[in-house]
Design a protein that fits this description.
Keywords: Cell outer membrane, Membrane, Signal. With about 550 residues, this protein is mainly alpha-helical. Helices cover about 35% and strands about 10% of the residues. It has a domain at about 15-210: Alpha Horseshoe (Serine Threonine Protein Phosphatase 5, Tetratricopeptide repeat).
């Protein structure tokens, strides 16, 4: 019996409105939680939150970890809805045009592919089904080999690619397209180290010739930037439609925010100098002026000290107890230094990327949730070719196009930016990986990269560092003219930073330890609730 509050598969999905309503649910943010609100950034080495740490980075997750429970439950909700749509489309025959049915089926295939791809990446083998399940059948379903699921995921993507249009028009940003299906197929293949599939899907997306890099990197992330040619798939927010996001935790205290979390020192040190070299190799790096001579995305991601931000001069120096209110011309208490406000940034840094005045008027913003953009396709194509050993001019052009955009120049103007010219696979892999990190900082991409590159066991076992407490900071750093960085940290072969020498000298503070467990955390735990009700469902190792 079907609940009276819901349409059944027998009497629902019979016209375009009903099918579209069902599909619309698959675009709701609760199904895309790992892509929103900096969720996976919190679990990566891009994140600092005073002296708190996410359970994943702390190594304390178990089979009752709420984030895994929610991800599992919501992803299977999406799969079930996509299955129901695909298995009910016959109801629309004769009532909806064949072309429209094809497009709607394409969207459902796309969603099912994305959701199963997510599950096999985070959990490995998982229950797989494409039809209707009774309660008893659901409780008896075991785990299917992830490689079998992957082949079916590719089939779903291919069905979506064949069925979906290249575009719908400027007002349909939220609907899946042919380009989105190709791009997500590439991402899935990259996550599964299926390099040839990733290469071909990314190249096919590029060959659609409908996407391009937004001219201005910084501008792209503001809420006012809508429907950019760089955006391949996004979930739109809109104040008019009652969809916004609470931003208070992520902007400065002087401007009215709470500054709960900051981009990490690890991320700050990842940006190369303008000669393309890491900060421990470049003669251009000055630890007392660490924003100078850096890749332009550094100043676009972090607020530079002494500059205006959200109407105030930003300066975390504990001696700077007053700062200028730019609009009034008067000095106000500097709540962004810990000598004035205990809860100011513990590492002195604050987020600039995407932050603008619309965050401060009511602590709400409605920027689009960008889940796939063209820069990612370019770098996925380059990575797949590098791993295949197919290093050619197209690889360098893909990477350099992304980097050149950051410098505001054309890719051919190699004298105006540090163009990558390396053809050695090891060196190019290192450059590509760091390019991804700084290009997609605080866009929920770093966490997945750490998992698939098997770098989490290094990046997430190093401590999180920050500034000394105010009095010690004044005495040991500022009074000795060592502000801001009291030294040059070491950058290793994976472009990961090592602060141990600075810490041993007593000039920085360890905020909290990371304890990623490589013997279990490369896969998430199956929620214990699922194990308890299904005798055929086994747990991942060491949980």
């Amino acid at each position: 019996m079907n609940p009276l509050s819901e349409g059944s598969s027998e009497n629902w999905y019979s016209d375009e409105t009903e099918i579209s309503l069902a599909l619309n649910d698959l675009y709701r943010t609760y199904l895309w939680d790992f892509e929103t609100n900096y969720t996976t950034e919190r679990m990566s080495d891009n994140w600092t939150q005073r002296q708190a740490i996410d359970a994943f980075a702390a190594g304390s997750i178990n089979s009752e970890w709420s984030r895994s429970e929610d991800l599992w439950l919501n992803t299977y909700k999406g799969i079930t809805r996509a299955n129901t749509i695909l298995n009910s489309l016959d109801n629309a025959q004769g009532r909806v045009s064949e072309a429209k049915v094809k497009q709607l089926a394409g969207e459902a295939h796309f969603m099912r592919a994305v959701f199963y791809a997510r599950l096999i990446f985070y959990y490995g083998d998982v229950p797989y089904y494409t039809g209707y399940l009774s309660i008893d059948e659901a409780f008896d379903l075991g785990r299917t080999d992830k490689n079998i699921i992957l082949e079916n995921v590719y089939k779903d993507f291919d069905a979506a690619i064949e069925s979906l249009p290249v575009s719908y028009g400027s007002n349909e940003l939220n609907r899946a397209t042919k380009g989105a299906a190709l791009a997500f197929k590439a991402r899935t293949a990259l996550n599964m180290s299926d390099w040839a599939v990733a290469r071909d899907a990314a190249k096919a997306c590029m060959d659609l010739d409908v996407y391009s890099l937004h001219p201005d990197y910084e501008e792209y992330f503001y809420s006012r930037t809508r429907n950019s040619a760089e955006t391949i798939f996004a979930l739109p927010r809109s104040f008019e439609l009652g969809s916004s996001w609470t931003a208070k935790n992520f902007y400065t205290r002087t401007a009215g925010g709470s500054s709960v979390a900051q981009p990490s020192w690890d991320l700050f040190c990842a940006y190369p100098c303008t000669d393309g070299l890491p900060i421990d190799e470049s003669p251009l790096f000055d630890p007392c002026n660490p924003f100078d001579n850096r890749d332009p995305r550094c100043k676009m991601t972090f607020v530079e000290f002494g500059t205006e931000h959200l109407g105030f001069i930003y300066d975390p120096n504990p001696y700077t107890t007053k700062v200028l209110n730019v609009s009034t011309g008067k000095k106000v208490n500097n709540k962004d230094t810990r000598s004035v406000d205990t809860y100011a940034s513990y590492n002195g840094l604050t987020l600039k990327k995407g932050v603008d005045e619309d965050w401060t008027d009511d602590n709400e913003t409605d920027f689009d949730i960008r889940i796939m953009r063209y820069a990612d396709v370019l770098l996925m194509y380059a990575e797949a070719k590098i791993e295949l050993g197919e290093i050619d001019a197209s690889v360098l052009e893909a990477i350099n196009s992304v980097r050149a955009r950051a410098y505001g120049v054309g890719v051919s103007d190699v004298s105006a930016f540090p163009a990558i010219a390396a053809t050695d696979q090891v060196q190019l892999r290192k450059e590509l990986r760091n390019e991804r990190r700084i290009e997609f900082a605080w866009e929920n991409r770093r966490f997945d990269d750490l998992l698939r590159w098997r770098l989490a066991e290094k990046a997430l076992t190093r401590p999180i560092y920050g500034l000394l407490d105010p009095n010690d900071l004044k005495e040991k750093v500022i009074d000795k003219e060592l502000w801001f960085f009291p030294g040059v940290p070491e950058i290793d072969e994976d472009w990961l930073v090592d602060f141990s020498s600075m810490y041993s000298e007593g000039v920085i503070k360890q905020l909290v330890e990371r304890n990623f467990d490589k013997d279990r955390q490369y896969l998430f735990p199956i929620p214990s609730k699922e194990i308890m009700i299904n005798k055929n469902l086994t747990q991942n190792p060491n949980y």
